[in-house]
Structures are given as structure tokens and as C-alpha cells.
């Protein structure tokens, strides 16, 4: 019979909560940790307890809660909590806590814990836009990142009152996904890099109601963005018609058509180190768009004349060959094929001039809209890399491994 002594130790997580209105969202993050088997110790600041009280944190975590270094002094909590943690995540992280962490100020239990922790540390900032954009905050964030902390960029959305802008706490489920990946032991090998990812499927309007499109859900592109952010990158995600929550720490640019996607990608790659084009871009668009809905009549409908859309991946490769900015150092693309997968993939690799081409078979219950994927990664200077069927995050990690090898 298995005893509690034989059971593997649960990962130990410290959830720091600082004094922002988004503190109530940390309750959901705490629930995600505890329900997935983590042992969570909540360490709020004194001011955070004005937003969510100690009984709530204690009840949800099953552990004692204090903000004061003078409680249970015999246990030396200001040292022991950080020493025993596998992960420290601060959500929300206010400008005040970021500043104290960057400058080593330890005036309460949370900031003492941050100084003693030797495990990965994740900050999920939340504050008003002006506070986030202030040079002092940006300098503090840069210092923390240089020291190895993972500081997520806040989301864009509704703030307190009528204000809207960048500064919103990312979705707790997305913060949890980042933390889960950090706990898996992945290094922050993309820290200091800016990467661009395209995702989803473009729509080419026939009239105000109808469009030419495809079945891409954006799941693979979002997995690429999420994993890059968890590895420390600054990520710009160009999303075409995707109904998914924004990955934590990712800047999302929403587009609809292939032409809009092209413009957004070319703007984003101006200072990017790498681009991964995972979006399913329509090859053609109607030559003309009707301004009003085309009515169904007794007569046969007129033909819809099509013209080619720009090949964005090939254009990036051409720009690099000609030295015509903008273009990134590493260019990767996706090729969805239904037959002759490898032969078609090799032809596309040569034609498009990219460094890596992720070739995957699509069809009924394959790739589009599914949680898993399988692929072969082709390159001009190395042997093909086969990625067996598995979660899309696993495929994304392999892609970033191959990209990171090629970064200067």
C-alpha cells in the first residue's frame, strides 16, 4: 500500500500578490495551481489584503497566509519561503513591487522572499498604461529581465474606471500556462529577442457577408507565441480571425485579410530577430468586392474572378536576399499539404527562400482545429527533423529550438 511518505513531493509555488485591483484575479490563478497538484503558499503585500483578505487566500490554498516578517519568527519565514520554492510568481505585480524587486528593497515578506528565492521567478504586471510606460518602470523591468526573471508584458484592455490600454493583467489561465512551462525546466533562451508569429486563417471578402477562407483555428500559432513568451522572448502575434484568449505577455495584432496580414508582418519584423509564419494565408482573393450582399435570384450567379495574394513568406526571403529591409535574421514558415507532403515541402522550401519550413499534413481531423500536430521540419543546410504527433506546444518548442540555433 502506498503511503503519503512514498508520494512524490508536490511542486512548491509561492504566489505573490501585490496591491492592485487585479488581485481578485489571482484567486483564479491560485485555483488553477492547487487543482493541478501544486502546493501553493500565498504571500500578499499588506496593501494587497485591502483587495482580497487573508481568510480567502488561506481557504483557497490550504496554507497559512501572512504579509509580515514578524509572524512565526521561529520558522524564519522571510528566508525559508523563498528557499523552499520551485517557482515564485507575482500576479499582479505593481509598479511598486517591480521597483522594489529591481533595487533589492525588502520591506515586507514578499520582497524578502524575492531576495531569497533561487528558483525561477515570474512577474505578471498590472497597472495603468502611464505607469507601465514610464521610463522608471521600463528600466526596472529591463533590470529584472537581465537578472533572469521572466517579466510578462501586460495585456491591452479595460483598466479601472473608464480607462483602456496596456496594463491589464493577462488572463489567469494564460499566466498559469506560462508558469507550468517554466516549472518544466525550459530555459529562457529567447530572452532579449523579438520574435514575430502569424496565426489563424485569412478571410477574403466576396461581399459584406461572404468570404473565401480556410479551416485554420490559430491553435498552432498561439502555441508558438505562448512558448516563445515562456522562453523569455518579446512576442508580436499577428492573428487572423482567431477566437482564442491572448497568450500572456504577447502583443496581439488582429487582422482579417492577406493584405492586412502582410502589412502587419512587415511592420512587426522591422526590429525582429525571427519570424515564424504559421498562419494559413489565402492564395487568392476576389478581384472585386461587392459593397452589398449578392442576392440569390433565379438566374445563375456570376463567376467570382480571383487574383493572387502576395506570398508573404517568399517576400521576406526575397527581401533578405536583396538586403532590402525589413527582414529578420531567421525566417520560418509552415506548409500545409494533403498529399506528396515531403516532395511539395522541399519544392516550397527552395522557392520561398526561408531557413526552416514546417511541413504538416492536413485533412479530416489533422492539424486544423485539433490540439495535436505532427510535422517534418525542412531546411537547406541540415537533415529533416521529424516531430511525432503530440501537443502543439511540443511542436512549437522544437521549432524554437531550431530557430534559436540559427540566431546570431
TrEMBL record:
Stretches the record annotates as Phosphopantothenate--cysteine ligase: 195-408
Residue segments, region Phosphopantothenoylcysteine decarboxylase: 1-194
Domain spans labelled DNA/pantothenate metabolism flavoprotein C-terminal: 190-405
Alphabetically ordered keywords of this record: Decarboxylase, Flavoprotein, FMN, Ligase, Lyase, Magnesium, Metal-binding, Multifunctional enzyme
Known cofactor(s): FMN; Mg(2+)
Protein residues bound to CTP: 283, 293, 310-313, 334, 348, 352
Reaction catalysis annotation: (R)-4'-phosphopantothenate + L-cysteine + CTP = N-[(R)-4-phosphopantothenoyl]-L-cysteine + CMP + diphosphate + H(+); N-[(R)-4-phosphopantothenoyl]-L-cysteine + H(+) = (R)-4'-phosphopantetheine + CO2
Family: In the N-terminal section; belongs to the HFCD (homo-oligomeric flavin containing Cys decarboxylase) superfamily. In the C-terminal section; belongs to the PPC synthetase family.
Functional summary from the UniProt entry: Catalyzes two sequential steps in the biosynthesis of coenzyme A. In the first step cysteine is conjugated to 4'-phosphopantothenate to form 4-phosphopantothenoylcysteine. In the second step the latter compound is decarboxylated to form 4'-phosphopantotheine. Catalyzes two steps in the biosynthesis of coenzyme A. In the first step cysteine is conjugated to 4'-phosphopantothenate to form 4-phosphopantothenoylcysteine, in the latter compound is decarboxylated to form 4'-phosphopantotheine.
NCBIfam families xrefs: coaBC_dfp (TIGR00521)
Official protein name in the record: Coenzyme A biosynthesis bifunctional protein CoaBC
